[in-house]
Amino acid sequence: MRPPTTDRSRTIFVVAPIIFMFFHQIVLNLAARWHFNAFLNSIDPTGSLFDLTDPAVVQQLQTQADIQSYASLYMSLIVIPVYIIYLWARHRMTKSMPSLERVGASDFLAGLSVITGSLGIVTLWMVFLHLIAERAEVVKDMLDDYRDLATQLVPDQSNPWIVFLALVILVPIAEELLFRGIVQGEMMQVIPEKWAIVVTLVLFSLFHMNPVQISYVIIPAFALSLVYTLTKNLFIPIVMHMWFNFVGSGFLARLTGDPEQTAEVLFFTQMLFILIGTFAAVHLYGKRKRARLATNQGDIDENINHF
Length: 307
Known about the structure:
By secondary structure, this protein is mainly alpha-helical. It is about 80% helix and about 0% strand.
């Protein structure tokens, strides 16, 4: 059921998500610029060693600076407290935002199964894109651009603990507070749940900007929004997002010391979890449906008793 809509809720629904999405991106860009300038000052105080008008030189320096990991770290430390304060204020106004219903370990396991299955679908999609790239030059160019971006996101010489803290822990918290907590939360105040999910996953996907990323991020975005809707607990998509980044960033493979063998094991595991994750999503849907029926029956019994 859609909650009652007022002029004030419509204004918050439209303005707050847009403001916070811009805020998130602006802070990330400023953090990246600050870290890059600090890195340049540390290796070239006089500013005479590098030709910063050459894009190739700048890209190489940005990779050396591990700019994405550090920028994500600084950004997350700034935006997370802001999002928490906003959600705390909104929770005082409407208890359904953010949703923090009591859940059990089985709900977390179901969420992890769903997101692991989404990793499998993403893997199959990337295989499909590579097959298309053999015949379509435009797709090949997009994949090349994506590989360059991936190298910048997690360069080989990056500090693994900075990568872990930033991309596996803090970024999932920041993005889930923003997209599931604020964006989806505000939309669910004024539009039906299914449309709130659709709009949120589209915005979440477009937020990543790169065409290849957009094409596959929509899959885990749907999984995150769906599980949040079914479990009514924001902590579950946060943990799901952490697991997705932990595996998807290659951090898990790097920890094993045998990336090729790990990648092979992960491939078959993800394929298996496409099926397991589907059953887990059906289980969560059934559980939510039974909870709603029980609530409706309780309301009916209470009205009869009052009558």
